Amino acid sequence: MTLNKDLLDILACPKCKGDLRLTPEEDGLICEKCGVAYPIRDEIPIMLVEEAIPLTAWEERRPAREPRES
Ligand SMILES: [Zn+2]
């Protein structure tokens, strides 16, 4: 199961209340405005400012990531 669109519409950044977008891997929610990603653990988005990961650090978590073929 992945997060559905309805849930995504309800969720907002706890910092700026802005819109979030799902990462391509669907393992996090990104707030472009704040430049952070909120991790999704066990299909539950961790919507806590304290748990937010800076996007730079988020990208560095997967240095070996290959482009996904579609
Ligand atoms: Zn934000």
TrEMBL record:
Pfam families tied to this protein: Trm112p
Please give an example of a GO cellular component term from this record: cytosol
Output the superkingdom of the source species: Bacteria
Similarity comment:
Belongs to the UPF0434 family.
* UniProt protein name: UPF0434 protein PCS_03175
Origin species, per record, is: Desulfocurvibacter africanus PCS
